[in-house]
TrEMBL record:
Classification via InterPro entries: AP2-like_int_N, CB, DNA_brk_join_enz, Integrase-like_cat_sf, Integrase_catalytic, Integrase_recombinase_N, Tyrosine_recombinase_XerCD
Name this polypeptide is given: Site-specific integrase [Lactobacillus murinus]
Superkingdom per UniProt: Bacteria
GO terms of biological process kind: DNA integration; DNA recombination
GO molecular function list: DNA binding
UniProt keyword list: DNA recombination, DNA-binding
Organism from which the protein derives: Lactiplantibacillus mudanjiangensis
Record-stated family: Belongs to the 'phage' integrase family.
Length: 375
């Protein structure tokens, strides 16, 4: 039977159990905001005891546990960017006081305090990513019986809204204006390769690494398709596998892009600068343009078109592509496959802003139609 006491720092519970050798031991945990929270946590331990499971939990520090979990389950076979993101989280835990706490001593309130402190001066995406990684590790600890309760559950994400970049995109008229401007600039003798990349991404919605890795072997201009089967590691300048299995896909392209790519291929052939396995978008230095250079080119194009959208960057072209298709009535399932998302829920989450706007417009149309009936 568990006992409960109210302490200065919150409610505490105590559960007794016997070791296999017959010695009596106690599980003590405190810091719960309410007695109910303490009762819920105590019931988890008592349930394990009733089932004959071990009630002894790990007292390994959070930072050490996270590092061990990462090296065992994440690092093997992970790509550079994935390793980098997890290493960032590990370093945050090593620098934070919560990283020194034993995982069986961390309460939901303590973890919430950590998120509050960290999120006070960090963007939403950063806080969300770090919480997701820590939570994955803790879920594994619960599954393995090293913890009785997931202290990350129901945490409220706190972040600095001024540092959180909103998802931005071009509307239909702006998209057409940009396309016209790009095509016009591609008729010059210079044919800037970065502008071909902007146009291609706007009309395909590829991830930037997928776009960089494209070769002429991947493009079938007769069938009007592009086969996405690899990505470009722009940190280490080499090919890598795509983000997920579903990222390997073949998409259709429209006649506008086909014509522009035909002209680019002919231009490169005349300069003896073409090979089926050579990347399409190599600049004059036979290198792929940097992300910074591509972002700058996007800003230049928008300035030429007198379009002022703060925070618009190269990845916003992908958002524009998907948002445009949604507004045109293309199904969310078809868009999800075209973007290479692993499931449609990801697409719905990323483009919830567009779906919400469309829902509001459909509601207005519905009410207008019903009003017509009244008249």
């Amino acid at each position: 039977m568990a006992t409960f006491n109210k302490k200065a720092n919150g409610w505490q519970f105590r559960v007794s159990y016997y070791t296999p050798s017959g010695k009596r031991r106690f599980v003590n945990k405190q810091g719960f905001k309410t007695k109910h929270e303490a009762q819920v946590a105590a019931r988890v331990i008592e349930s394990s005891k009733d089932k004959g499971l071990s009630v002894e939990t790990s007292n390994e520090p959070l930072a050490a546990y996270f590092e061990e979990w990462y090296k065992l389950y994440i690092e093997p076979g992970a790509q550079y960017n994935t390793k980098h993101h997890y290493t960032v989280t590990l370093n945050i835990l090593k620098r934070s006081s919560i990283g020194e706490y034993a995982i069986n001593a961390i309460t939901p309130r303590l973890y919430q305090s950590f998120i509050n402190d960290y999120g006070a001066d960090h963007a939403k995406w950063t806080v969300k990513k770090i919480n997701a990684q820590i939570r994955a590790a803790i879920k594994k600890a619960v599954y393995d019986g090293e913890l009785h309760r997931d202290f990350t559950q129901n945490v409220k994400l706190v972040y600095d809204e001024s540092k959180s970049r909103d998802t931005v995109w071009l509307n239909a008229d702006q998209t057409q204006t940009v396309i016209n401007d790009l095509i016009g600039s591609l008729q010059t003798s210079q044919r800037p390769i970065s502008r071909y990349m902007v146009l291609t991404d706007l009309l395909t919605g590829l991830r930037i690494g997928e776009l960089m890795a494209l070769t002429w072997e991947d493009v079938d201009l007769d069938q009007q398709t592009i086969d996405i089967n690899k990505s470009w590691d722009y940190v280490n300048d080499k090919n890598k596998t795509t983000k997920t299995k579903s990222s390997n896909r073949t998409i259709a392209i429209n006649s506008t892009l086909v014509e522009q790519l035909k002209e680019l291929r002919e231009f490169q052939a005349n300069k003896n600068n073409i090979h089926p396995k050579t990347q399409i978008f190599l600049n004059n230095n036979h290198r792929i343009s940097s992300v910074a250079a591509l972002n700058k080119q996007v800003r230049n194009v928008l300035d030429e078109c007198e379009i002022d959208i703060p925070d618009f960057h190269f990845h916003s072209l992908r958002h524009t592509h998907a948002s445009f298709l949604l507004y045109k009535g293309v199904s969310i399932f078809a868009i999800s496959q075209r973007l290479g998302h692993s499931n449609v829920q990801i697409t719905m989450g990323v483009y919830s802003h567009v779906i919400s706007e469309m829902k509001n417009k459909e509601t207005d149309k519905t009410l207008a139609a019903l009003d017509d009936l009244d008249n």
